[in-house]
Design goal:
The structure is a single chain. The protein is an alpha+beta fold. The chain has two helices and four strands; from the N terminus they run βββαβα. A four-stranded mixed sheet has the order 3-2-1-4. It starts with a strand and ends with a helix.
């Protein structure tokens, strides 16, 4: 299950306790990885999530905004809630 994320090269890199779970730059692709790998009850973020502009995002909020968008897609597809 995904339990750690980091901003990287304008996308989100996701990790499980076994290593890298995936990398994607679109909310739809991140949500797909979340669906296939599962998501832990708590997901921790690297400091790169707070300083996303240093990792290829237009703003420091860019990575968090992308993760939130992916989470909304995931919640709709998996949990049927918006």
């Amino acid at each position: 299950m995904i339990d750690f994320i980091s901003a990287k090269d304008g996308g989100i890199q996701m990790f499980t306790n076994n290593g890298i779970a995936g990398f994607a730059k679109s909310a739809k692709s991140i949500a797909y990885i979340m669906q296939t790998k599962g998501v832990a009850d708590t997901v921790y973020g690297s400091s790169t999530m707070s300083f996303a502009s240093e990792e290829g995002f237009a703003t420091d909020d860019g990575a968090t905004d992308l993760w939130i968008a992916a989470t909304e897609i995931y919640n709709w597809n998996v949990n049927k809630v918006a």
